[in-house]
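Take a specimen:
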Amino acid sequence: MTSCFILALSAVLLPLLVLFGLKFGIIGNLLAPLEDDPRYRQIRPVGSGSFSSDWFDQMAARDDVAFIVPRTRSISATMRLRLPDSETGRIISVELIPSAAGDPVLGDLDPPSGFSSVLLSQDAADKLAFAEGAGAEGILSRTYKSQQETVLLPLTVTGVAPAGAFERDGMFVSHELLVAVEDFLDGRAVPPLGWDGSPTQDDSRKFSGFRLYARDPGDVAGLRRGLMARGIDVRTRQADIELVQSLDRNLSIVFWIIAGIAAVGYGISFGSSVWANIERKQRDFSVLRLTGFRTRGIVSFPILQALMTGVLGWAIAAVIYFFVQAGLNTLLAESVGGGEAVCRLLPAHFMIAMLLTLSTASAAAALGGIRLAKLEPSLALREG
């Protein structure tokens, strides 16, 4: 009878493990890009605005903001670039992307700093045939006091950004260099680089845009609402985030409904079986009480039996699950692609499943314990 209980428990638990493994694997594959790809956490302004340094300080202090840097006007954030030692000899126009410490799109690369350190986008590096250690030269031109002026800026390319960091010809630069380029093109002086022009007024500088990344995909919606409420029109990938989160939420509801029904059904079945078993063995348990066993020891008998049944049933279900998991992942490997597992569970999931199993079995066995507590030792004498 105990073997039947164990097999019955395995039969109930195995489909739940497979179902949750599929749910966790599929949703995990959908959630991974949201967590790993910073583009899902990016909040892009639409058009130009006017943002002060105080505004950026306030935004950077928010718990839901992971990264923010000012951007200058698009027309002032471009530069012609060439690699003097490159075999192609090409000169391309690149967009200047402000960067700083903690830039989420750069991964493990050190961010650019100062007026000479830069990082190239993958497209720009390919067009210029960039080789590690090659020097670069930026070319800026302006009309100042009716005179055409061109300056050459020696640059040090410290690396190439990941392919997904920027999908056009671009160059990641420091905030200092971005501001210096805007000042030069607007006819203002840049003393650190020796560029002449009218005096600058850094204290009153306003920036037309920003690069902003939320700390978590779940923070995107709140940041968007806050910015829109302040009259700042932004674009996000909130729809993609909400779609995956809604799918995760709905599948979780379906799983827990099924798991709840299965747990209640097995608990009632197991509890009634324990009760019936005790009814059949009333005289045996009464003899135990008559020979000196305390109520606590007698009551613990069905609970200990339930715990052993739960552990063995869970172990059998877990072993079979690994074979099912391997078969499903192999069968669906070509459909999913990328080597991602469709069905998978973490060690913590198995531990949680065991704890829930033991809790359900113990609760069901407690019904039998209550019946045992009411047995009288005299029953053994009357039926003897």
Q: What stands out?
A: The two ends are 26 Å apart (CA to CA). The first strand starts at residue 42 and ends at 45. The chain has two domains: 2-35+242-383, 38-236. The chain has a mean pLDDT of 82.
